[in-house]
């Protein structure tokens, strides 16, 4: 990861991460509503996804069989389109971007989960996210919703029909969780761990505290 982060031009770039079923999506809209009430322009978006092309790629990644390299290339292709068409213009306008997953998910799922070489992921990351000055676009703050995979699986079982990732076993999600822990340890100034096993209100309070600590 680069120590030289691209300027957000007055905007805010916040990502939400965690294993499937951690409960992050429920909180994105709450933050968006609060910030909109403060007069901010807010873009709520997700990865893979966020543009017509990236949503098409998302459908493939979530539902078609493929190997780890194909998966990594598709999520980075989706990310490139999403950055170019949505995220960068929004940050340049001074908007707040709330993104349900970003590149940490690639290192956690394709890297730690699938066992794909993180050095190759780091090369792709630079190709996709680096600007002309060599600065890397990454979130200013990442809220990592950390939870035991068994509890997340219980929540998901009650919630919806599983996609290709959600069908994977507990061992896969233990590795993904470990991947997030490594990313958090490598970037402690960017990551805040949220104890996602708590009841919804307690999780919301942790989110609010993390934002307040940034003056957000
Ligand atoms: N704190 C909580 N306690 C109990 N249930 C929760 C909590 N937070 C979310 N849930 C429930 O767990 C399920 C998964 O939540 P949600 O879809 O927000 O997770 P997610 O992290 O966005 O998952 P994914 O990444 O797979 O989309 C939903 O049914 C949601 O209502
Ligand atoms: C960005 C990104 C995502 N994934 C996986 C993680 C999830 O299982 C799905 C997205 O579904 P969600 O309902 O939005 O959580 O995609 C991945 O494997 N690699 C990535 O880079």
UniProtKB/TrEMBL annotation:
The keyword Phosphoprotein does not apply. GO terms for cellular component: cytosol. It comes from the Bacteria. The keyword tRNA processing does not apply. InterPro entries: P-loop_NTPase (IPR027417), Thymidylate_kin-like_dom (IPR039430), Thymidylate_kinase (IPR018094). Gene3D superfamilies: P-loop containing nucleotide triphosphate hydrolases (3.40.50.300). Its EC number is 2.7.4.9. It is an enzyme of class 2 (transferase). Residues 16-206 form the Thymidylate kinase-like domain. Transmembrane segments: none annotated. Keywords: ATP-binding, Kinase, Nucleotide biosynthesis, Nucleotide-binding, Transferase. GO terms for biological process: dTDP biosynthetic process; dTTP biosynthetic process; dUDP biosynthetic process. Phosphorylation of dTMP to form dTDP in both de novo and salvage pathways of dTTP synthesis. This is Thymidylate kinase. It comes from Rivibacter subsaxonicus.
């Amino acid at each position: 990861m680069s120590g030289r982060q691209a300027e957000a031009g007055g905007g805010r770039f916040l990502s939400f991460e965690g294993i499937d079923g951690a409960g992050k999506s429920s909180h994105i809209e709450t933050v968006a509503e609060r910030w909109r009430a403060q007069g901010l322009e807010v873009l709520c978006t997700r990865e893979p996804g966020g543009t017509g092309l990236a949503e098409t790629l998302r459908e493939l990644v979530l539902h078609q069989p493929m190997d780890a390299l194909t998966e990594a290339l598709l999520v980075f292709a989706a990310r490139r389109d999403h950055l170019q068409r949505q995220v960068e213009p929004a940050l340049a306008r001074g908007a707040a971007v709330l993104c349900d997953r970003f590149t940490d998910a690639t290192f956690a799922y394709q890297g730690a989960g699938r066992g794909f070489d993180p050095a190759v992921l780091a090369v792709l990351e630079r190709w996709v996210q680096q600007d002309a000055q060599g600065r890397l676009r990454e979130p200013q703050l990442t809220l990592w919703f950390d939870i035991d995979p068994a509890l997340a699986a219980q929540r998901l079982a009650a919630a919806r029909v599983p996609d290709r990732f959600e069908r994977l076993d507990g061992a896969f999600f233990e590795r993904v969780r470990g991947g997030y822990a490594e990313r958090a340890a490598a970037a402690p100034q960017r990551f805040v761990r949220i104890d996602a096993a708590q009841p919804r209100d307690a999780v919301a309070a942790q989110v609010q505290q993390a934002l307040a600590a940034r003056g957000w």
